[in-house]
Fold these 3 entries.
Entry 1:
Amino acid sequence: MTRRYLAFVLADTRRNWKRLAVSSIGVIIGIWAFTLFFAFGIGLDRFLEGQVFPWDKIVVVPARASMDTCPDDDYLDDSGTFGTLLPFAPKTRKFSVITDEVVNIIKQRPEVREAYPKMKASFPATLVGGRHALSLPYELKTVLFIDGIPADEVVHCSSEEARQDMALPSSKRRCEVKAPYSFKDFGKEDSSLPSCRTDTDCPKGTFCAINARPGTSTGHCYHPIPAIISPYLLEIWNGSVAPAHGYPRIDPSSLGNFLGLTVRVYLGSSVFSTMKGSGHPIMRRFQLVGVSDKALDLGVTIPMGYIKRWSRIFKDSGNARPGGTPAHTYSSLVVRVKDKRSISQFLAFIKSMGLSYEESKAETAGLAVTIITAILLFISIVMILIAAINIAHTFYTIVAQRRREIGVLRAIGASRRDIAALFVLEGTILGALSGLLGITLALLTSTGVDWILASAVPDFPFKPDTVFSYPGWLVVLAFSFSVIAAVIAAYLPARAASAVEPSEALSVMV
Amino acid sequence: MAMNMLWFAPMEEMSEPLIVTENLRKSYGDTEVLRGIDFSMKEGEIVAVMGRSGSGKTTFLNVLGGLDCRFKGKVMIDGLLLRDLPDVRLASFRSETIGFVFQNFQLLPHLNVLENIALPAFFTDFGQDPTSRALELLEAVGLPEFADSHPAVLSAGQKQRVAIARALFNGPKLLLCDEPTGNLDSATAGDTVSLFRRINDEEGVSILIVTHDTIAARAADRVLEMKDGLLEEVTGD
Ligand SMILES: Nc1ncnc2c1ncn2[C@@H]1O[C@H](COP(=O)(O)OP(=O)(O)O)[C@@H](O)[C@H]1O
Ligand SMILES: [Mg+2]
């Protein structure tokens, strides 16, 4: 194939450009839709898995007898922290609750990057506060969900480390609690603090705990209970609560102003029902010390030691919610896996241990996105195929109209292959240009959509900067797809053109 | 003199005929158009084949030029047996050995005169600069001022000259001309005939003309007639 031959192909393409342009509109639109939908699918999937529902997060929970027990599990020692050693393979020990032993076994699994247990509060709580910090006309009063995690599972940073951390992109930041705050159980230190009647009797930074027990008016000073909240809660606050009620937003830059904020929390007190039995609410100051995705989505997370002690108190006083987790077991175990591909293997292991796991939202959402993306892609592929038929038709028309000309080319020395290549190359040029145009249009469209999203759509939780993702392979795929579709479309007419005997091609009457 | 540099048809010993056919037969369906033609032509000859319209002249020419391979019998051109040749080989035979001149010129309307003449260079590994070669040929046929014109503005005679220049582009041994004067008035036809003579004289290009026109036949060294699917020598012109 000589350079001059290619020049001839180019000249011929230019000669046909109007009808080729018309016939390639379909491919351009098809590639546009294909690229856009695909980029949207990938973008949405990444966004959901990365930010809204972390893909690597698996919450292991005890198997609930009412829901998860099947006949095979009947021999399980249901009362037991000890589990049952099965006589037959698989030789995995079975557990019905999550104990320290379970935590250790799971932590040693090769798929596991990190694992920490959680303990839900088995008593209700009500939060009161926020008036000053959030400049509200009244105190917020709301039901508060609390859980606990081991205090040392939270990443602490010095102010210097925190500064370096802030310079990293948000996905790489590790600091969860920054100096001078600390996520620790002050239980032991509190016992050395003086007794008090009011907060003013206590050293700076500590508060007076007077439990509303009839006849008592003195209490003990204590450090406020460190609490962390989830980025999800912040998003909900910023995206829904704050705009709806006119409260201030809390974004990363202003977060510092809100750290250290304390609120009163009435433990054992529910906004939904009055206390019953002999239980008395305990009032404690909670202090916001950090933001971490280890925290409860809608609530606060505190060092687990507090939960253990308070659960005992409320259990003894008969004020515990029915069905609460026994104090020596955990309500769940949060696991972050290393690799997406090892998830199913890990989940199978969890099942074999007799435990269960929360339905992964990432999986559900991801599946929905995948299905929708697949449908959209299917539609765009059908569009491209129809467009390819259109191109084939155009080439057939061109070939029919130029039969005689093809005969002349054959007579002066063009082989069948030269003639076929002429149309296939024209198809290639057509496909390449259509592909570039379609991809460019898709990029423009997604820029436009992102712009509308940023400027015209009101904030919502986890509102992303972009819902599209264009990995390099997608661009290559869309481009190749366009070229291949056009080449295939041109191939059959090209073969038809080259199959004709030159003598017959020349004998056609104009 | 200039033309000596343009056309390089080798002047070999004229021992072996340039064209040999033996018992050449060709049918369209049930109608046999060529019924066993034995024909031979020496290198350097100009031969005219006359015959009524529909007698099979074009069919004969197409077979000789490798434009139609569905025939029976033996056809040998310049030592090459035109049978079961792979398509690429046949294409290079057409481009190197044969030059075609058609009755209706068959110029490509979207290319200018120069590009039309240089058309064969698009499909072969043409060594020199095709444009200067095309210009030389255009001068040789006496139309240098029309290099950039499109065929539409040319007269029939001018178109025929451009078509002849194109046929000569690759320096063929044999020109196959199908009714070359069919669309020309008698004066222009005469010019074309003398152009053929000149090409033959100066370059030794062999020329086979099929025509029903006696003017065209005047150029020929030898005239044959196609009749009932057979070729007969015409004696005593
Ligand atoms: N492609 C074809 N299919 C069927 N018949 C054909 C075809 N080409 C030519 N013929 C017939 O073959 C005969 C010879 O045609 P042709 O070689 O074109 O004659 P000429 O060139 O002498 O006018 C005519 O009867 C014509 O109708
Ligand atoms: Mg004819």
Entry 2:
Amino acid sequence: MKALVYINTNHFAAKASFEAVTYAKKLGGEVTVVAYGNAAGAEALGAYGANKVLVESSINEADNQQITRLVASAVEATGAEVVIFSHDLVAKAVAPRLSVRLKAGLISGAIALPETGNGFTCKVNVFSGKAFGNVAVKTAVKIISLLPNSIQPENVGGTAIVETFNGNMGAVAIKVMDTKKPEGSIPLPEADLVVSAGRGLKGPENWGIVEDLANVLGAATACSRPVADIGWRPHHEHVGQTGVAIRPNLYIAAGISGAIQHLAGVNGSKVIVVINSDSEAPFFKAADYGIVGDAFEVLPKLTEALKNFKNAN
Amino acid sequence: MNILVCISKSPDTTSKIAFTDGNTKFDENGVQYIVNPYDEWYALVRALELKETIGGNVTIITVGNAADESIIRKALAIGADNAVRIDAEPTDAFFVATQIADYAKKNNFDLVLTGKETINYNGSQVAGMVAEFLDVPFASQASKLDVNGTTLTLEQEIVGGLQIVEVSTPAVVSCAKGMAEQRIPNMRGIMAARTKPLEVIAPSAVEVYTSFESYSLPDAKKACRMIDPSNMAELVDLLHNEAKVI
Ligand SMILES: Cc1cc2nc3c(=O)[nH]c(=O)nc-3n(C[C@H](O)[C@H](O)[C@H](O)COP(=O)(O)OP(=O)(O)OC[C@H]3O[C@@H](n4cnc5c(N)ncnc54)[C@H](O)[C@@H]3O)c2cc1C
């Protein structure tokens, strides 16, 4: 199937973009990428299977209405049958708009390649990660928004042809007044490794040992809901049923009890390590590796052991 | 300001998730339904706060059958002025968005608010679809919303950070944490909710775009391997050689 992949500005080297292009490549047809802004580095997506990258380079900022128009015109220009997004904040705004505009069914939060033997169905996360659903799409054009960390990027070599594209994006309706991006931090939903802590850490002044571990690992940091609610940590770190749902390769939880609402957002993690002083904490039932101990002692020891490991490897 | 708040039901967060009919239907046995937390805590409460400061009307809308009137009464008890129920089983996001957009088009709202997603289907789809149907701007996942005349000022999450944006009404906004604080309905609200207007409207015909064919549950975890707190080198070794995640 001919596929079109939307990639965010300046995300040509992001793992989530490699995943989306790999996914498109596996659909077996020609793969075109559409993006806007600075085209530098776009050809590198060829390594993951993109044949061509169309870049609308006349603008640097676009709102979701404009991006929708851009992707719609790229679908028209390429005759794409499937449109792929990485399921991030931009996709969550653009993909639904595009669904209405193109009269194309949307699969939101796909975690696997589609089954095409009998119709077109795709596996998604539902009930905040407590279950999976198989969604069938009945429309001619399909839109898939792929959850980060759902498939392994495959570097097959090659470079893509980069072309300028005039996407008829129309006027801006959302004016950006200010942007705050913390330097160097890893966006939680895309992180491979996550270190998380809860009320067991007793206070915000104790997060140094959490951050030390995260730094050694190159991990993002997360927290339980009460910790964000009392303001010990920023809201965007709150994971769980009413926070961010993540599926990293490794989730390390210290001083978190493992309430059902917390588990909902993290049980898609491949490997879970739980550090808790209470051997009866429910989180151990969902863990792969457990340590019954005081987080204030265990975390620095784990950090130390990882440093030794990194030095030796 | 004339505000439409979209509310959905969702199973209580402690519900056991199971399926029936050959894994094709969610098992509602013993499940308690609540107003989807993002819709209630953030979208509805912020709408009420705006009404309290600048005046106007707050209408809630849900697509669902008669059994869903309990969540409608809850939202009215919290303070919405009137309610609309589109009388249909909400089969997919496109169906729901079509119904809401059809109603919104006929009733001239300045602002349509939704939660950022439901906690059962997690689609984040309805708000964006409604915005496209109405051909208006859409601010997604807003954590703050202020109104000055016809200008909305919003704080919203973006990939890797936060952004302050301005949008003119009419607009659609999906609401995330930070926007407001949960309100518990009081006795007077609960009494008043019984007599507030609830309009039941027949659905428009919609082409089926997507459908849930079946469900499954994650594989049971194998037993947790316990590691001595004094032996973190062993954990590191297991993460490297056995789990292969570092
Ligand atoms: C509608 C609803 C939605 C919710 N959504 C979410 C959500 O999205 N995400 C979420 O996280 N929660 C959510 N919750 C809250 C959830 O039910 C729990 O209350 C919460 O997850 C508990 O956070 P915690 O584990 O940090 O704190 P606690 O439950 O207080 O647990 C602290 C843990 O730390 C351990 N501990 C204490 N001292 C130490 C030490 N020195 N070393 C090691 N361990 C120690 C304790 O044994 C305990 O297990 C929700 C609740 C409701 C009702």
Entry 3:
Amino acid sequence: MTEQTTPRTNRTVLVLLDTPATELRSSALELLTIARGLGRVEAVTLEAPSVPTLAQLSAYGVEIVLQAELPAAVRGGDDAHLSPVVAEALAAALRLRDADAVILSATFANKEAAARLAHLTGAGLVIDATSVTESAEPGPELADAPPAGSLVAGKRVFAGSWDTSCVVRTETAVFTVRPNSIVPEPAPVAVATEVEGFAVEVSELATVARSVSREVHERAVGGRPSLAEAAVVVAGGRGTDGDFGPVEDLADALGAAVGASRDAVYEGWFDEFVGQTGVTVAPRLYIGAGISGAPHHRGGMQASQVIVAVNSDPECPLFEISDFAVVGDLADVLPQAAQVIREHKG
Amino acid sequence: MRIVVAVKYVPDIHAERGFADGRVVRSAEEGTLNELDENALEAALRIIESLPEDERAVSEIVAVTIAGPEADTAVRKAYQLGVDRGVRVSDDALAGSDYFGTARALAAAVRRLAEEAPVDLVITGMAALDGLGSVVPALLAAELGLGQLTLAARLEVADGEARITRELDGVTEELVAPLPAVVSVTDHANSPRFPNFKLIMAARSKTVEEWTLADLGLDPATVGAAGARTHVLAATPRPPRPDVELVVDKGEGGRALAEYLIRNELV
Ligand SMILES: Cc1cc2nc3c(=O)[nH]c(=O)nc-3n(C[C@H](O)[C@H](O)[C@H](O)COP(=O)(O)OP(=O)(O)OC[C@H]3O[C@@H](n4cnc5c(N)ncnc54)[C@H](O)[C@@H]3O)c2cc1C
Ligand SMILES: Cc1cc2nc3c(=O)[nH]c(=O)nc-3n(C[C@H](O)[C@H](O)[C@H](O)COP(=O)(O)OP(=O)(O)OC[C@H]3O[C@@H](n4cnc5c(N)ncnc54)[C@H](O)[C@@H]3O)c2cc1C
């Protein structure tokens, strides 16, 4: 794969902001960093950006924030969040700025918005990319080699067991990028950031499926990082027997997010699970305690950098993909580890 | 009520999975019906089973897959679960389809079924366990010009409407669309049934209808590798992880764990 170099062409890359009203999370800063490697970056938002958000954007070299002005029938209502509506806003921004690429974070809602945007604009789409670069030169061995300057996405598939790279063959490209793909880096020099409104027409089709109720959960995480984006994740499974205390204790000692297996969530012991049908995580460190390591679970965490397992069964499958493992009762092992870590941190 | 269920044939996640020449290796031995499409089939079966007898009698569930002949295993599994008809859209020109080619072919199959008699609902799984894009349902709705109700943890169909509840990225939402609509269901929506003996026997004598691009009036240039907007440039297996460092807890296991993290600068 090509190294990220100074962009060759005069590209404009749009980045959708997920949380403009509060402040940008590190996943958004990653997107801005990746986009800067490809060309001129402009941000798109459906809500007014806050003062902290504007400060972050200026540090990341974004001069223009495009704020969508939705029609009165949709504006401010729950339908404004529907992915077909978001897609139409992004398509309008793309046309307005004659942009070449759009980058979104890889949430379920954004994947759909990305797909509908690509459908509206004829763009190629890569879901769950971990890098986006430009191809330095055509690959000589390929009959349909991409021209130099094509956009190429790296993508890890089959539960983190294969690395692939995909080239986009269309004029415009849409990517969703996974959190924890790169370390965000501010621009060499900060810039002045301005908000520009732009009008969006919303088609009838976009709101054929209407939102009739919408409730955002203020999660009682006590300041813990979000599971999808955390650099460290401690997850508990059926082996906790319902007591997530030791899992949370170790997580807090490490400043980590807490996760679970699907079985633990179905038992009602926790609210978010890691895995192929739950949250996909790829943190620096994943610790699984009392989790057997079923393929569905592994599919959502196997791309983690370091994997640690605690399990009373020496044959548990999670050990097969672990770097470090303790055979033991998690109720003994986790609190002791938390204690030693707290002492170490002082 | 007529329901089309999109089902995908995928490599078994318990087996070794990989690529050859930029394409996923799909063998007849290690492939299976995408598990999450069992939830889609279950949702369709429950809707039909809840109808009054006279409506049930004129109802139909059609399973549709876009794939090569090896995918008949997946369609046959759908028969075993109780669908009435199975269709496989196969064409050499479909090989290497991206999200858009797949959605276009699925949409054309649904349109063709709708020419026979109205289709009320299209149901899909939340994701295919190989591609894991979770985008085909949204694209299918866009292609067909229908409302999209995706990632349903609950689905109700009544009075010409479909209503879903979903839990997504920390938001609980209820969405409604008029029929026909495209719905994708999560693994939370239901517990798929096991095939019963009678249906297993009956499935043996059922045939899978085979349609080509020409049957669907699709231009081969718009699907498959020819129409794909993205191409796989390279696919390489990741090196295996080094052997695990295993500690048996005899009272100091937690300390050993903490020391491992400290030593590797993970604290
Ligand atoms: C279509 C489908 C999708 C799925 N998607 C997901 C998904 O996204 N994520 C997911 O997690 N699952 C998913 N599952 C479920 C998955 O297959 C497993 O059933 C589940 O992950 C098992 O959860 P577990 O490891 O907590 O439980 P178990 O498999 O029961 O494992 C419990 C483990 O705890 C150990 N243990 C017991 N007591 C202790 C103790 N005191 N101390 C230490 N260890 C102890 C045991 O040795 C065992 O290894 C899916 C299933 C299906 C069919
Ligand atoms: C590892 C991998 C990565 C890929 N990455 C990309 C990419 O970045 N961009 C791109 O354009 N293409 C990509 N593809 C190609 C893409 O997977 C196929 O086009 C596929 O048929 C649809 O995508 P999906 O598997 O992600 O399905 P999803 O969108 O996850 O499937 C959701 C539901 O749609 C239905 N469905 C999906 N496929 C079919 C089918 N063939 N027949 C019947 N029903 C179906 C099923 O009900 C399924 O549950 C990738 C394929 C693989 C194997």
